[in-house]
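can u do me a favor
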C-alpha cells in the first residue's frame, strides 16, 4: 500500500478519526487518502492557522489527539501559531506537513532553497514541539508515527510534527515489514509519599486553599477531582483557564486568581496559611510580578507532572510533588485519613464573608451582559473564547453549569483562536458550540464563517463588539496618556458591519443592542444551524479589576476602599 494510505489507516486504528487542513501541492496524496479512508473525517479549512486551531479545539474538547495537515512552505509556516498554542496549552496534536520531493531538497547545501516552496519547518518548530522529524525513508513511517504519538500523549501532552516529502507519501510499502518504535512508559505505582505530603500539610493548616489548574482537564480527572474537593470542603480557587473545573454554584469555589482574577479569590490566597496548587504552572499572570507577596504567609505545595515547570520557583521552601494526576487523584480519594478530614469552619465562614463583601465591587455592564448571556447557554455545552477583553469577561462573569467546558488560548494568547477552535470542538461532541470573540479577534480568521455555512454546523458566534482593540486601548489609557494609536476608530483601526457580513455568508445574523434583543432570536440560539450575534458593548470598555505590574495580586486597580480593606483584614468570624 502507499505510505499516504498507511497513515490514514494507522490513525483510524488508533481512534484518531478527525483531521483538519488546507489543500496544497505537497500534501495532495495525504489529502486524497484521508478523504478516501472509511471512518476518517477530513475537513478543509480556509487557512492553515485555522486548521491548526481546529485540531487544538478538537483535542482540548475530546481529550483525543487532534490532527492538522498543510503543504510545504507557507502552508507549514501558517501552522506554527497553532503549534505554539498546542505547546503552551499542553494539547496532544499531530501536525503533518508535506515537503518537496527528496531529489528536489537542498539537503546540506547552503543555498536558501532548491525546490519550490521548500522550507525547513523542522528547525522552526523544534522549540515548540515535544517531537518533530523529517521522514526521508518510506520504510520508517510506522516508526515515526509510533514515536510521534507516544510523545504527543506521554506525560504532559503536546504537539508533534512530521514533515513528509511528496515522493515518500506515494511510495509503495509492505506494512508487515515496517520497523516499530517502542518505549516503556515509566509510571511509579508508589504514590504514598505524595498522598502523605498533601494529607499532613492539610491537617496542619488552619487556612488552606487549593488552586486548580488546566492540568486537571488535560489528565481527564475533572469529575473525580470535583468529588474529592467537595468532600474535603477546602476553599477552591482556579487559574483562568481552569475556571470551569468547578461549577459556579459550588459552595467552596471562590473564583479565579491572578492579574484579572476575582478580588475574592486573590484575597483568600493572600490570607491563607497553605496553598496546594494542582495542575497549575503558577505563571506571572497568576502570582503577579511581585512574587514575594504571593501567598506571603502560606506554605506552598505544588503538584505537577512536569519537572521542568518547578524550575520556576515561586517560594524557596516550596514543596514540589511530581505526580500524574490520573494516578494521584484516585489515591487521594481512597485515603482513609483524608476521608475523615474536616476543614476549619471558621476559615470557610471567612471566605464566604470575603466573597459577600467583594462580589459587587467590580460589577460593570460587560460582566452583567456576559452573566445574562450565560443563562441562555445549556448545560453540556462547549464555550470557546478569543483573546482580549472578551476572554476575561467570560472568565469573570460566565456562570458555569455542571457539565460545561470553556476553551482558552491562555499561554500563547492567540487572537483568532475562538472560531476555528469552536469548529474543532463541535466535531468532538456534535453538539452546538458557543463561540465568544471580539471585533478584533474575529477578523483574524473571519474566513472560517464559510466553513460554518458549507458544513451547516450549529456554532453560535457572539461578537463582543467595542469597536476597538479594547485591551490595548486600556493599556494606552493607563500608560500612554490616552493616545490610542491604531486601536480605536478613526485612529488606525475600524470594524465592519458584522451583521451584514454574516448575512453575506448566508448566516442568520443579528445586532444585539440590549439584552432583551435576544428574545427576538430564540430559535437562532437553539437550532442546529450557525448564527451570529453582534453584541454592542459600547465604544469604551474596561476589564476590572486589573493588576498594575508591580503590585501584589490582592491589591488590584481600582484600589479597594481603605475602610473596606481594613474591615476585611480585621474580620474574625
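np, heres the sequence
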Amino acid at each position: 500500500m502507499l505510505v499516504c494510505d498507511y497513515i490514514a489507516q494507522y490513525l483510524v486504528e488508533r481512534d484518531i478519526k478527525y483531521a483538519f487542513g488546507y489543500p496544497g501541492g505537497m500534501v495532495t496524496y495525504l489529502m486524497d487518502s484521508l478523504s478516501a479512508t472509511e471512518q476518517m473525517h477530513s475537513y478543509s479549512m480556509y487557512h492553515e492557522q485555522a486548521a491548526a486551531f481546529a485540531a487544538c479545539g478538537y483535542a482540548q474538547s475530546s481529550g483525543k489527539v487532534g490532527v492538522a495537515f498543510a503543504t510545504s512552505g507557507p502552508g507549514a509556516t501558517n501552522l506554527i501559531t497553532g503549534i505554539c498554542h498546542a505547546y503552551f496549552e499542553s494539547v496532544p496534536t499531530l501536525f503533518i506537513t508535506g515537503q518537496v520531493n527528496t531529489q528536489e531538497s537542498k539537503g546540506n547545501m547552503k543555498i536558501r532553497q532548491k525546490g519550490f516552496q521548500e522550507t525547513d519547518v523542522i528547525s522552526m518548530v523544534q522549540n515548540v514541539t515535544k517531537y518533530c522529524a523529517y521522514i526521508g525513508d518510506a520504510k520508517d513511517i510506522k516508526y515515526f508515527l509510533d514515536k510521534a504519538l507516544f510523545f504527543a500523549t506521554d506525560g504532559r501532552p503536546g504537539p508533534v510534527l512530521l514533515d513528509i516529502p511528496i515522493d515518500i507519501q506515494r511510495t509503495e510499502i509492505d506494512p508487515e515489514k515496517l520497523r516499530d518504535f517502542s518505549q516503556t512508559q515509566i509510571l511509579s505505582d508508589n504514590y504514598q509519599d505524595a498522598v502523605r505530603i498533601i494529607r499532613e500539610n492539610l491537617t496542619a493548616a488552619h487556612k488552606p486553599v487549593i488552586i486548580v489548574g488546566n492540568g486537571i482537564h488535560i489528565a481527564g480527572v475533572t469529575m473525580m477531582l470535583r468529588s474529592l474537593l467537595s468532600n474535603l470542603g477546602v476553599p477552591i480557587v482556579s487559574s483562568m483557564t481552569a475556571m470551569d473545573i468547578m461549577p459556579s454554584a459550588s459552595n467552596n469555589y471562590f473564583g479565579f486568581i491572578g492579574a484579572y482574577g476575582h478580588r475574592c479569590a486573590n484575597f483568600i490566597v493572600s490570607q491563607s496559611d497553605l496553598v496546594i496548587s494542582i495542575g497549575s504552572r503558577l505563571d506571572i499572570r497568576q502570582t503577579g510580578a511581585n512574587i514575594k507577596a504571593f501567598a506571603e504567609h502560606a506554605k506552598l505545595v505544588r503538584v505537577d507532572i512536569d519537572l521542568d515547570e518547578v524550575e520556576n520557583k515561586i517560594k524557596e521552601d516550596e514543596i514540589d510533588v511530581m505526580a500524574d494526576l490520573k494516578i494521584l487523584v484516585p489515591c487521594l480519594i481512597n485515603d482513609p485519613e483524608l476521608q475523615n478530614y474536616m476543614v476549619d469552619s471558621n476559615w470557610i465562614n471567612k471566605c464566604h464573608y470575603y466573597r459577600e463583601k467583594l462580589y459587587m465591587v467590580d460589577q460593570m455592564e460587560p460582566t452583567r451582559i456576559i452573566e445574562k448571556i450565560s443563562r441562555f447557554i445549556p448545560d453540556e455545552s462547549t464555550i470557546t473564547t478569543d483573546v482580549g477583553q472578551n476572554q476575561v469577561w467570560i472568565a469573570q462573569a460566565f456562570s458555569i453549569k455542571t457539565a460545561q467546558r470553556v476553551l482558552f488560548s491562555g499561554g500563547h494568547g492567540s487572537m483568532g483562536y475562538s472560531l476555528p477552535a469552536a469548529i474543532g470542538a463541535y466535531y468532538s461532541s456534535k453538539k452546538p458550540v458557543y463561540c465568544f470573540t471580539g471585533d478584533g479577534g474575529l477578523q483574524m480568521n473571519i474566513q472560517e464563517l464559510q466553513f460554518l455555512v458549507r458544513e451547516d454546523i450549529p456554532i453560535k458566534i457572539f461578537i463582543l463588539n467595542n469597536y476597538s482593540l479594547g485591551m490595548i486601548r486600556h493599556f494606552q489609557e493607563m500608560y500612554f496618556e490616552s493616545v490610542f494609536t491604531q486601536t480605536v476608530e478613526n485612529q488606525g483601526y475600524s470594524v465592519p458591519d458584522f451583521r451584514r457580513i454574516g448575512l453575506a455568508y448566508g448566516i442568520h445574523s443579528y445586532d444585539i443592542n440590549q439584552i432583551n434583543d435576544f428574545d427576538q432570536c430564540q430559535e437562532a440560539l437553539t437550532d442546529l444551524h450557525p448564527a451570529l450575534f453582534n453584541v454592542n458593548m459600547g465604544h469604551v470598555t474596561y476589564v476590572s479589576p486589573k493588576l498594575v505590574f508591580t503590585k501584589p495580586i490582592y491589591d488590584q486597580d481600582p484600589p479597594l476602599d481603605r475602610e473596606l480593606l481594613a474591615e476585611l483584614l480585621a474580620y474574625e468570624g
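The CA atoms of residues 60 and 305 lie 18 Å apart. hope that helps!!
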